[in-house]
């Protein structure tokens, strides 16, 4: 089915090749940073110069930045679907590679729009922006090696959970066959420096381990583990961690999802989940230059340092989410967080590991008179009929903001003084969704 998009990718590549310089716009998460890096690498090989701007979201303010940026051609990845008309109105060459649900499928004169949804392919589970960027790169030239970067976006968007599917699976299988990616055994915690992996573990978030240095030391000591544990001790550690997850109330399917196959990236010399985390942390902490450099050059010490700093901030925030700080309503849970770029991660932790699994989680981050919203819900909540993309879109609009995303992970931006009103509308809408 992806073949039906080939013409669109070829047209996009043809447009890009007409220019000496292209401006890239994308999202600050792993998928945004990795898709930008894939596109930038493909452009660099064609000797096309590039510049980039990374946004936390795409709203009116960011569109103003786009309008004021000097370029003749731009490529937007991981966003743009909700602003196609506005992009067309710029009268410049715009290429949009997105996987979010399309509000329109316009054939605008200056916009080359490629979205997997237009070929009937699910953009929540089997194609992310990095997949789209990878396919675009193949229309630009022989760029199969860029899969080592694209996989970071797939993992960042959680599309590897339960095994890669559909288009992603086809691409990953080919890369594994070609030896560009090495498949390793399943494990709960990614391979790498043990203490770092335990400390920075978000998926799974384990109380008394994640972000807890003393907890980790006590745990390792109780199992007689030092720096280089043998297989047997690693197995004992893994069983203990699973037991801890069960005690904190994490469901079996979620534990099973976390115990995923590991992909080793030879040019990075690290596990793909680790690579994804570094790209994500750099993007979210405003160090996109390091993140993109790290992806394109297959390593960067500044990016690794930025990652530890961001993970430290994330862990402090994650540990601050306590039952007392979360408001539970009949059909949702919500909290407010003061640190930018972390709310989505906190919502995800609350949804999967700490909160009530049937209730979607909404996190607000207030900045000035606006509030950024990140929402998450579990597969269990999805199975009840909940769709957070609709909730974010409709309820944000009702209070004078905008929003959208995926059924299980969506966001928005609204006036901060209308949060109360927003949560009541959302609570009502989720109740209605469950009835259908
Ligand atoms: Mn994405």
Task: Describe the 3D structure.
This protein has a six-stranded mixed beta sheet with strand order 9-10-11-12-14-13. It folds into three domains: 160 residues, inorganic pyrophosphatase (n-terminal core) (Alpha-Beta Complex), CATH 3.90.1640.30; 135 residues, no CATH class; 109 residues, Roll (Diaminopimelate Epimerase, Chain A, domain 1). By secondary structure, the protein is of the alpha/beta class. Bound molecules: manganese (II) ion (MN). Manganese (II) ion binds next to loops.
What labels describe this entry?
inorganic pyrophosphatase (n-terminal core), alpha/beta, Diaminopimelate Epimerase, Chain A, domain 1, five-stranded parallel β-sheet, 3 domains, six-stranded mixed β-sheet, binds manganese (II) ion, 436 residues, 47% helix, globular
């Amino acid at each position: 089915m992806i073949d039906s998009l080939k013409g669109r990718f070829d047209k996009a590549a043809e447009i890009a090749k007409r220019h000496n310089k292209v401006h890239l716009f994308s999202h600050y998460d792993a998928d945004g940073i990795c898709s930008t890096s894939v596109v930038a690498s493909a452009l660099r090989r064609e000797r096309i110069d590039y510049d980039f701007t990374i946004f936390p979201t795409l709203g009116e303010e960011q569109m103003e930045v786009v309008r004021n940026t000097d370029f003749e051609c731009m490529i937007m990845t991981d966003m743009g679907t909700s602003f196609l008309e506005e992009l067309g109105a710029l009268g410049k060459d715009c290429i949009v590679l997105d996987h979010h649900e399309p509000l329109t499928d316009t054939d605008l004169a200056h916009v080359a729009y490629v979205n997997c949804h237009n070929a009937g392919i699910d953009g929540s589970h089997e194609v992310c922006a990095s997949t789209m960027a990878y396919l675009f790169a193949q229309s630009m030239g022989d760029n199969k090696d860029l899969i080592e970067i694209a996989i970071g976006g797939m993992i960042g968007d959680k599309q590897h959970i339960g095994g890669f599917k559909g288009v992603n699976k086809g691409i990953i299988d080919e890369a594994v066959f070609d030896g560009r990616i090495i498949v390793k055994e399943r494990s709960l915690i990614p391979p790498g420096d043990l203490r770092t992996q335990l400390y920075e573990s978000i998926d799974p978030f384990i109380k008394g381990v994640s972000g807890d240095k003393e907890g980790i030391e006590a745990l390792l000591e109780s199992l007689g583990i030092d720096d280089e544990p043998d297989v047997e001790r690693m197995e004992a550690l893994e069983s203990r961690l699973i037991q801890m997850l069960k005690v904190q109330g994490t469901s079996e399917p979620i534990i099973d999802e976390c115990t995923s196959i590991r992909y080793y990236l030879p040019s990075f010399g690290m596990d793909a989940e680790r690579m994804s985390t570094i790209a994500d942390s750099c993007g979210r902490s405003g160090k996109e230059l390091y993140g993109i450099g790290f992806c394109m050059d297959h390593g960067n010490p500044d990016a690794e340092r930025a990652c530890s700093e961001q993970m430290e901030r994330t862990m402090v925030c994650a540990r601050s989410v306590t039952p007392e700080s979360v408001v539970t309503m009949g059909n949702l849970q919500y909290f407010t967080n003061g640190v930018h770029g972390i709310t989505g991660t906190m919502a995800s932790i609350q949804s999967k590991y700490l909160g009530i699994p049937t209730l979607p989680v909404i996190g607000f981050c207030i900045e000035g008179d606006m509030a950024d919203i990140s929402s998450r819900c579990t597969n269990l909540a999805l199975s009840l009929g909940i769709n957070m993309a609709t909730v974010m879109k409709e309820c944000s609009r009702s209070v004078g903001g905008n929003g959208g995303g995926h059924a299980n992970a969506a966001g928005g931006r609204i006036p901060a003084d209308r949060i109360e009103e927003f949560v009541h509308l959302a609570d009502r809408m989720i109740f209605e969704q469950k009835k259908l």
